[in-house]
Amino acid sequence: MKEVLRSEISEPPLVTSYQALLQNNDFHSHVKTESIVVQEIDLPMINLCNLQSENREKRRLCAEEIVKAASDWGFFQVLNHGISLELLEEIKREQVKLFRLPFEKKVSSGVLNDSYRWGNPTAVSVNQFSWSEAFHVPLDKISDEDCNHGEFTSLRELMKNLGMAMSNLGRALAGVLAQNLGYSCHDFPQNCDEKTCFLRLNRYPPCPFSRPETGAACGLVSHTDSDYLTVLYQDHVGGLQVMKDSRWVAVRPNRNALIVNIGDLFQAWSNDAYKSVEHRVVTNAKRERYSIAYFVCPSYDSTIGAYAQPSRYRSFTFGEYRKQVQDDVKRTGKKFGLSRFLV
User: Fold this and answer.
1) How far apart are CA 201 and CA 99, in angstroms?
2) Is residue 227 part of a domain?
3) Quick one: the chain helix, strand, coil %, rounded to 5?
4) Please, what is the end-to-end C-alpha distance for the chain in angstroms?
5) Fe2OG dioxygenase domain location, by residue (predicted)?
6) How many CA atoms lie within 13 A of 25 on its CB side?
7) How many whole angstroms separate alpha carbon 254 and alpha carbon 75?
């Protein structure tokens, strides 16, 4: 009984927040329509050990696989990525403990630099429904002595190590993709450091409104990422879905692989050579889901210009892009993203 009570008070008040939406007669029909998935698939799998091979042909073929996946899918999986499964499993255990804190403490105690987020309390329509909670932490704040880790002091070093490892992986993959386009600089993307990149710890609680007859509600609504690259570690529960050929496909989890996807900034910089693809997370009625995402972002005053001209997009800074996205979502409930910056 004590464990049940603890679980109940640790949950964010999602039901209360979404009460009006849940009473809407159109809710379940909308969810059912939006949840149609063609099939469960395996994302393109790339073995990164070949990227470091002494064999030039193996390196070339590996780079071609990365480029093809970034162009055709915008998503791919990587094996032998250089991040130990022991580190990932250890931080997952700490992550579970962190989210089991009472909701009031997560909201008000300043844990992890006041980075706690939950649901979407301002949602006004079903398509803004997000059944989730997260800690969204700037990388430089993780090791900051003023960043309150509370009783989770071991989490500081784990997050720092994971952030550094995911940063190195993201930069290596971005370099391969940039060089494919003839870009000579090996330090791409530029101006990405601990002040601009984020580590996000996600939890998707069981959702009682996800039912076989009505479909699954969204843990994270359909979106594209507003960064260069995202590196994702997810557990075995599943729920990630990707838009492919105008239909949703469910991504089959693979505990040995990390998922990488192209963000809006890389699509703009590559002049649409690489695709930033819509994706979402759907909930599970009985099981919670955990994931950790690393976002490769430049400084807010960095200009995102195409690597070659003519460009499909006008020049803009990351700060300008971020503000436009936030304004659009606040005003319309929808992200327009790159379409706002077409020439």
Assistant:
1) 9
2) yes
3) 40, 20, 40
4) 60
5) 195-298
6) 0
7) 14
Asked if residue 333 is part of any domain, the answer here is no
Contact between residue 257 and residue 77 where contact means Cβ atoms under 8 Å apart = yes
- Residue 277 lies inside a defined structural domain of this protein: yes
**Structural domain of 44:** 2-313
Give the span between the Cα atoms of 25 and 92, in whole angstroms: 38
Asked if omega into 138 is within 30° of 0 (cis), the reply is no
pTM, rounded to two decimals? 0.91
Find how far residue 80's CA is from the centre of its chain.
20
Over the stretch 191-247, which tens digit does the pLDDT of each residue have? 887 788 999 999 999 988 776 544 567 889 899 999 999 999 999 999 999 999 999
What DSSP state is assigned to residue 211? B
3-state SS class at 157: helix
The closest alpha carbon to 208, from 8, 1, 5, belongs to 8
Distance between CA atoms of residues 181 and 119, nearest Å: 39
Number of independent structural domains in the chain? 1
